[in-house]
Amino acid sequence: MSVALACTACGPGKTTTTESEPTTTLETTSTATSDGTTTTTTPTSTETSPTSTTTGTPASCEAFLPDETTAEQTTITLTNASAGPLWLGAVGCSGLPDLDILDGDGQNHFFVFEPCSPAPCELLMAGECILGCDDCVVPAGLRLDPGASFSILWAGADVEFMEMTAECAPGPGCAGECVAARERPAGTYEITVSAAQQCVGTCDCASPSPNGHCTVDGGIILSEELTVSVPLMFPEMLEIEIPIGG
Predict the structure, then answer these.
(1) How far is CA 57 from each of CA 30, 65, 164, 203, rounded to the nearest angstrom?
(2) With the C-alpha atoms ordered 63, 164, 27, 201, is the resulting torsion angle positive or negative?
(3) Which residues of 154-165 are buried (b: 16+ CB within 10 A; e: fewer)?
(4) Distance CA 231, CA 211 (A)
(5) How far apart are CA 160 and CA 183, in angstroms?
(6) Maximum distance among all alpha carbons in the chain?
(7) At 62, is the secondary structure helix, strand, or coil?
């Protein structure tokens, strides 16, 4: 899965730098821009896929194969529009922001692969069944200084949890839970994200970034929560910015 890097706020009087932040499962790319008064950091990750349903035993082995989806990924950018720092909960090995993307029935379509998430079903069918848990340490939170932003790529397909049978993947240890990509219904989804204005504990970053974004490790207590919800038309909208505070 590829990562697309786009230049934001480029223009006269602005400088742009590109840096890479390693993770345990993919390379996260950051673009930082500054105009001398506010600073914006935009790391982009593809370690997100929405989830939909769980099924039982399929009628044939072909049911384990992923759908051929055509929808493109959507860039979701969270921006701190307030005068002070904000803290968001972090999930997954890449420390992505904790948010919800709900359909009209209230079902969440935002899924982040955790250290022990099931493998893709097609890998099990190919005999790649030696599975293990990533020993990554998920950061406690994500800190955004005023003017900073964090962008993620929301995959263009849902994830279906399935139970691989020994008949469809006869190798040793292949039977068990797996996931397969499924085409997501078009429609209006609601993105909801919460951020805290106050933090107690290790609220500064262990490795501060000059660009206004960083992850926070250790025990923290967050309070004075701000919650923002915005509609997203799928698959028409490929980019959306969500200002928090201000």
Answers:
(1) 42, 13, 8, 46
(2) positive
(3) bbbbbbbbbbbb
(4) 28
(5) 10
(6) 63
(7) helix
**pLDDT tens, N- to C-terminus, the chain (246 residues):** 222 222 222 222 222 222 223 222 222 233 333 333 444 444 544 445 444 455 555 668 999 999 988 899 999 999 999 999 999 999 888 889 999 999 999 999 998 877 788 889 999 998 888 777 777 887 888 999 999 999 999 999 999 999 999 999 988 888 999 999 999 999 999 999 999 999 999 898 766 666 677 888 878 899 999 999 999 999 999 999 999 997
Instruction: Name the H helices within the chain.
Output: 121-125
Instruction: Decide: helix, strand or coil at residue 121.
Output: helix
Q: Tokens 């030696």 belong to which residue?
A: 130
E-only strand ranges, 51-122: 51-54, 74-80, 86-91, 96-97, 99-102, 119-120
Strand residue runs (E) in the chain:
15-22, 27-34, 39-44, 51-54, 74-80, 86-91, 96-97, 99-102, 119-120, 141-144, 149-154, 157-164, 176-183, 187-201, 213-216, 220-234, 239-244
Tokens read off for 83: 């005068």
Yes or no: say if 46 and 154 are a contact pair by the CB < 8 Å rule: no
Alpha-carbon dihedral angle through residues 100, 73, 88, 82, given to the nearest 10 degrees: -110
Q: State whether residue 63 is helix, strand or coil.
A: helix
